[in-house]
Amino acid sequence: MAVLVQQLRDPSFSRRRDADHQLRAMGQNAVSFLNRLDERTLDAEQRTRIRQIKQSLHVHDGDTPARVAAWLADDPAVWLALLERENEATRTVAAKQLEAILGHTLAFNPAAGESERRQEVRRLRAELGLARPVLVGDAGGAVRR
Fold first, then answer.
1. Which residues touch 110 (CB under 8 Å, ≥6 apart)?
2. Tally of CB atoms within 10 A around 124
3. CB–CB of 7/14 below 8 Å?
4. Residue 131 carries which DSSP code?
5. Which ranges of the chain does DSSP label H, i.e. alpha helix?
6. What is the distance between the alpha carbons of residues 42 and 140, in angstroms, rounded to a whole number?
């Protein structure tokens, strides 16, 4: 998405238009990403197109589970939190999703012991510059610090 945002300032009208169409086609995933951009780093063309894209994708029906899931799907912090779950299958899915988001293989073993997993998650959080969440719920609904 970052590449598409850069293409919104391309000298070629067709590239700008294609990037605009591709961002719109991504739906709420794009809106979530676009909302996190620092507008001070964008030129006037980018700001205008991004504003138009967000307005075109704005839904007035409130949050639905599908919309919330789309907003959170590309958030590394969500998947990092899931790496701490008790269930190994959940950790495995979370690791694969995080690898897809980051574009590289993680040094994380979902089957490792709890101590080793905690150490790996701490390292990943530091590497990504993400603070540890205060509370993490497990699959059974229990909450731990």
1. 83, 88, 91, 92, 94, 95, 117
2. 20
3. no
4. P
5. 2-7, 13-25, 28-35, 44-57, 65-73, 76-82, 88-102, 114-128
6. 44
CB distance 55 to 47 below 8 Å: no
Beta carbons of 128 and 80 less than 8 angstroms apart: yes
CA distance 19 to 50: 11
Asked whether the beta carbons of 95 and 80 are under 8 A apart, the reply is no
pLDDT in tens, 70-116: 667 778 888 888 999 999 999 999 999 888 888 889 889 999 999 99
| Claim: this prediction has a pTM higher than 0.85 | no
| DSSP assignment letter at 12 | -
